[in-house]
Amino acid sequence: MKNFLNRYLYYILVPILFIMLITFYEAQNIPATIFLRENDTVKQNMFLKVKGMNKKTDRNASVNLLGVVPVGSVSIKSVKENMLLYPGGQPIGVKLNTQGVLVVALSDVTTKNGKIISPAASSGIQIGDDILKINDVTIKSGEQTREEIDRSEGKNIKILLDRKGEKIEKILKPVKSLEDNGYKIGLWIRDSTAGVGTLTFYDKESNMFAALGHPITDIDTGTILKVNSGEIVSSSIVSIKKGAKGNPGELKGIFVNENNTLGNIYKNTQCGVFGKGNNQLENKKLAPMKIGLRSEIKEGPAKILTTIGKEGVKSYDIKIEKLLAQDVPGPKSMVIRVTDKELLEKAGGIVQGMSGSPIIQNEKIVGAVTHVLVNKPDVGYGIYIEWMLNDANLLEK
């Protein structure tokens, strides 16, 4: 009888323990934020379910064992059931003016008494800081910065900085430069940038657009540039530098009809650039598409829409190699590999300037190309489209 009971308990307890271990493991791997269509339910596995609700766009929901026993919670964001977006793939010229001016380097100043250590550095100003105000005057350009410093005539000035979101005030004294007889504080600054990228999508209903899939950063400091103003214009690809191992390729483009603004940039985030555009961003050759959420994407065949020549936007075959877990927004959501013979022959795979090219699977926009692996030009990263939708404010209706 005792052996029978032991065997009976063994056959009951072992499966229960097994289920608990699987449940614990799966619960640890559920993203902190889940995007659901209205009234939809995600079945994480045969034991765990996450149920969404409508009416609210951003709230917490419980993760339930067998749909009944709560074992955790996630943040839920709702996506409109019938959302349709015009896919991009066309090259765009991006112009960005920074909020304030960005400090990109510090330098000594040569005076009549010899070289003096940078007054900016001595006061604690750092590379990557944004100068927002000088003596309570809002700074909008590098030229204005130089004028305000020179106007001090060697008296103390007050500088308001933004350092990674924290406002910091510094007091320092400019010195007269022997080179041009003007007053300086010993720093190099940048107030704008420009380049070529690829449009990801355009929403006709709200006029919102998204591009790049990754942030615009300063080339010297790696700092994500804060936007004061920006715009996108038409661009034309004039040549391709083919990618090779250890040597990334590049789409070389030029701005076309710069006076015709296609849209204004409002945000530059980890997930790309975003703003409001006009109907010139509609790709007339492609019908609007549904979007595919992370839970709907499968590893396997997919396509990208991009432009590598005068023929315009074309579809090229890729394979989604791996879907990555992400708790916070970022441009590295999935690993993709180019399989298309034409794209491999002409470009070598993924090249700079292709960032933002929409990834299509099952006739849905599921993401965008963001990076290439330097030593494997046919392999790169893509971002989940839900992160871009979130930063485009298309989940807040």
UniProtKB/TrEMBL annotation:
Residues spanning the membrane: 7-25
Protein name: Stage IV sporulation protein B
Keywords: Membrane, Transmembrane, Transmembrane helix
InterPro entries: PDZ_sf, Peptidase_S55, SpoIVB
Domain Peptidase S55: from-to ranges: 166-397
